[in-house]
C-alpha cells in the first residue's frame, strides 16, 4: 500500500514539474524558431524564382525551381566546384598546420623547461589581445616581398608557425591535466621529449586535438578577409570570396544564385559540426576554456 502511495506521489510530482517547465520550453521553442527563420528563409528563397524572393516571404515557395543552383554553379564563368576545392585545400592545410605547430608549442610550454619560459608564455597570451588589424600591414608587406601574393601561401604557411595563440593556450591547459608521472616513467624507460610528445601526449589528447581541428576548419572555411587581401585571380578564390561575385553594387544582384550557393557552402560546416560535435564539447570541457 505504501509502495502504491509513493509511486502515485512521485508521478504527481513529475507531472507538476512538467507543467512548471512548460513555459520555459515554449519560450525556448519560440527563440529557436526566431533564430532559425533567416536560415530557413534563405533555404526557401534558393528554390524560388528571382521575382518571388522579396515579394513572397513565406517559407514554402509557390513555384519551385532549381534554376538558381544551376545558374549559381556556372554563373561566374568558372564552375563553383573550383571554389569549393580551393576552400578545402586552404582549410585542410590550415587544420594540419595548426595541429602540428600549436601542439608542439603547447607541449613545450606545458612540459619542458627553457630560459624565460614564463616571459614567452606571457608574450604568447598577449597576442590574444592584439587586434588582427595591428599585424595586417607588416604581414602584407612581408608576403609581398616574398612574392606570395595571389597564392595560398599567406593563408597556409602561418598556420605551420603556431600563430594561433588560442589553440596553444587550449592545448596547454589540456596537457597540464595529464599526470607528470607518465613523463617520468617514460624518461626512466629512456624516452626523450620527442618520444614523450608523440607516443604519450598526442594519443591522450585526442579530444582537444579534435576540438582544435574542427574550430580551425570552420574559421578558415568562413574566413573572408584573408582571401580578400591576398587573392586577386578569380580561379584562386575561396567560397566566401566567390559568393561576393553574385553581389554587384552598380547593377542588379543575383540573389537567387547567391542564396543557392550560400546553402551549399554551409553543407561542409554543418557536416563537420554534426559529425564531431561530441569532440568539441569534450575538448572544451576537458580544458575548461571558452573563447
Task: Describe the structure in your own words.
This protein has 291 residues and is mostly helical. It has 13 helices and no strands. It has helices at 2-45, 67-74, 80-111, 117-126, 136-146, 153-156, 165-176, 181-188, 193-204, 206-222, 225-230, 239-243, 255-287. The chain is flat and about 75 Å long. 25% of the residues are buried. The mean pLDDT is 85.
Distance between the termini: 55 Å
Helical element count? 13
Average pLDDT: 85
Question: What proportion of the residues is helical, as a percent range?
Answer: 55-70%
Q: How would you summarize what this structure contains?
A:
Helices cover 69% and strands 0% of the residues. It has helices at residues 2-45, 67-74, 80-111, 117-126, 136-146, 153-156, 165-176, 181-188, 193-204, 206-222, 225-230, 239-243, 255-287.
Write the layout of secondary structure elements.
Blueprint: H1 2-45, H2 67-74, H3 80-111, H4 117-126, H5 136-146, H6 153-156, H7 165-176, H8 181-188, H9 193-204, H10 206-222, H11 225-230, H12 239-243, H13 255-287
Helix pairs in contact: 2-13, 3-7, 3-10, 7-13, 10-13
